[in-house]
Design brief:
mainly beta; 7-stranded mixed sheet; 4-stranded antiparallel sheet; 11 strands
Amino acid sequence: QVQVVESGGCLVHSGGSLRLSCAASGLANNEYDMSWYRQAPGKERELVATVSIRTGYLKYIDSVKGRFTISRDDAKNTVYLQMNALKPEDTAVYYCKVSTWWRDHWGQGTQVTVST
């Protein structure tokens, strides 16, 4: 059974930085993608960034390019989202999704709040 756990969210001032972690367990190989989504109050959940563990393919949405960076520790099945120059509009619950060939697996989310 695949389990996904996010951590690292907290309150930070505008312009500050945070690093989120997404740890996955129960994976048998590297045939999966890991993605970060976020959902702000009253808004739909949106994809922020994604990485293919097998190919290394990376994708970011335009609003975070140059500010957010994905890195990975394959030995720990963990992906990190380094978030710099945070803005109030980055405030949201951040979710990690692990996509295997048979289904998507979601974490419980971690709250990021950016104050002005």
